[in-house]
Every structure is written in C-alpha cells, then in structure tokens.
Amino acid sequence: MSQTGKLPVVNCEGCGACCFHMGYPAYVLPRDPMTAAEIEADPVLSQRAAKDKRFKQDLIDGHPGESHWHRMPEDLRSQWQTHVDQYQQPDYDGTVESLDGPCIWLDMETRQCIHHESRPNICRDFKADSPGCHDWRKHYADRI
Ligand code: SF4
Ligand code: SF4
Fold it and tell me: How far is CA 100 from CA 59, 63, 78, in A?
C-alpha cells in the first residue's frame, strides 16, 4: 500500500513524486554579475527585476554555478544543455498539471534518479518526510 497522508515517509523507494513536474534537473548555472544598466537594457530581465528585488539582486551578484554542475561528466552536461536548448516552456495555467512533466532523469519504472550522484542542489535539499514531500505525495497519491 502507498505511504501517503500523515504516515512518516522513511525513504523515497518507489515514489519520485517530487520529480513528476520538474521537467529537467534545475541547476544554478554560472553567470557573470550584471550591472543595473545591463539589466535595464534587457527587456525580459528588466521586467522581472522590476517586480522581484531578490531576482534583481541575484543578477547583480552573479553566481559561480553550483558545485554539482561543475563536477558533472562533460557528456552529461552536454546532454542537459541540448535538452534545455530545445526546451519549450508549457503554457502554465496555475495548475500542477500544466507544469513541466517528469524530470528527464527520472526512471518512471524504478522511480529513481538515473544520475543521482549528479543531481542538483534543489533535489539534494528536498527531504523525504518534509512538508513539501507530503504535499507532493498527496497530490500524486494515485501514482505512488
Ligand atoms: S522526497 Fe518525498 S516526494 Fe520526493 S521522492 Fe522522496 S518520498 Fe517521494
Ligand atoms: S535530477 Fe533526479 S532527483 Fe532531481 S528532479 Fe530530476 S530525477 Fe528528480
């Protein structure tokens, strides 16, 4: 029987619910710091930066890129890049169903991450038995 609801979640075996809408592994990539003028000159970034101060500050600060991105084998990084280059964002209508589908690294049969050792920080930080874990398991209760 599936473990859903308030039962403690002891491990991720046979689940994968938090990967069902991720689309692809979400790395924080290396990016150079930007000046306020450069952000202003970019029509897309400036629009978002005007509404989100944290986003703007992140652009100004830049980022060295997360460690697992740098440690990942080159061929895997290149596969990831090809996928992202061809990626088309779905029309998000406010529902979970309109998010990206399962992560490209999720094996839907085993429900395991096929490149677990290279997974990004966002996946490492997401813990079994956390409130978010329970939320996703509840949402996908018919699939786990
Ligand atoms: S963290 Fe929770 S939702 Fe994600 S795979 Fe593990 S048990 Fe499932
Ligand atoms: S990289 Fe692995 S752990 Fe992260 S969303 Fe994809 S399948 Fe899940």
Answer: 24, 25, 21
CA pair distance 83, 87, nearest whole angstrom: 6
What is the rounded distance in angstroms from the CA atom of residue 79 to the CA atom of residue 85? Answer: 10
Residues constituting the chain:
144
pLDDT digits (tens, 9 = 90+) for 103-142: 999 999 999 999 999 999 999 999 999 999 999 999 999 9
Which ligand lies nearest to the CA atom of residue 21 in the structure? 2
Please report which ligand is nearest the Cα atom of 16: 1
For the record, the structure tokens of 17 come out as 């619910």
What is the residue type of 15? C
DSSP assignment of 82-95:
HHHHH-------SS
Which of 20, 23, 24, 22 is closest to 143 using CA atoms? 20
If we measure between CA atoms, which residue out of 117, 127, 107 comes closest to residue 9? Answer: 127
Q: Give the torsion sign (CA, 124, 125, 130, 131).
A: negative
What 8-state DSSP symbol labels residue 117? G
Q: Which atom of ligand 1 is nearest to the CA of 16?
A: 5
